[in-house]
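Late entry, evening session. Most of the bench is empty. Finally got around to the prediction I had been postponing all week. Sequence below, unchanged from the version circulated by S.P.
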Amino acid sequence: MIEDSRLFFKKLLQTPSPTGFEEKIQAAVREYMTPFADEIHSDVHGNLIVGKNIDAPYRVMLAGHCDQIGLLVNYIDNEGFLYVLQLGGWDAQHLIGQRVIIWAEKGAISGVIGKKPIHLLTEDERKKTAKIQDLWVDIGAKNKEEAEKLVEIGSPITVELEYRELQNETITAPGTDDKTGAWVVMEALRRTDRSMLKCAVYAVSTVQEEVGLRGAKTSAFGIDPQIGIAVDVTFATDCPTIEKKQNGDIIVGGGPVISRGPNMNTKLVNALVKTAKDNEIPIQICAEGRITGTDANMIQVNRSGVATALVSIPNRYMHSPVEIISLKDIDATANLLARFLEKFDPNESFIPSV
């Protein structure tokens, strides 16, 4: 991974992108990708679409969603504490004791999610599992009036955005689901040798995946691709408590994960596997017995149908403030897609056959 692209990835992870409020991260993507693109535009939904070799009639779409799970200010009580709704799927236990940022109209406001001290908990309270509606955000306001001068109902919230390097080229940060995917699709487009391209490539930083795969639906309709490859994270199973018999054998640092199943076009999957073998890129295979909860779901059924694949990054502790991924995995995934695009033949048929 070259230093510029590594810094770009770090910048994405340190840029807020709560679902429905992705403007800041899309601005960062646009700034980085402008030198490498034939065309960059946003649609009314907020998807950022980066095109290369756009005059070619055959279109390949790469999709990585940029939105991260967050919270939304829903109520301010008389003492100035903020109560919230969730944006995307949180386990409330992960939020207790977290530092958060409220991205208000007037600027970023720091806060914390507090809880009654253990010394004061009753026996029954110690046994209960917290729910989102039980949590509050403390910004240090004296009362409701002071809090309302700083934040608005509907202000988005993220946990504090951090980027920390761990051992063996792994990193931990909130929002690796799926800023890793957004980085991969942009980096794959950047790495693709234009002189070898026989198709148009559209790398899309999609929005609102965490609340229903919405950005993939609208951007795929607009691009109308013949092939679509979604890049997301998947569950790493190389840590305690996750059953490999049910979830597969997926290792952080083991390479990109290529999925097989009904949400994927078998011929396209085989072409990606062959590309990996030809270029000595380590890969892992994952079985998906039904449609996935990723952008691949919407892309596959766009218009009259799209030949679709899903390539994923192993992720430990998904939908938590301490997600872990491997830099080697995202680098290998970008290379895999770039090499596939360079060798892609638009005359190849992806219609299923015996």
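Two things to note before I forget:
The two ends are 40 Å apart (CA to CA).
The CA atoms of residues 158 and 299 lie 28 Å apart.
Will write this up properly tomorrow.
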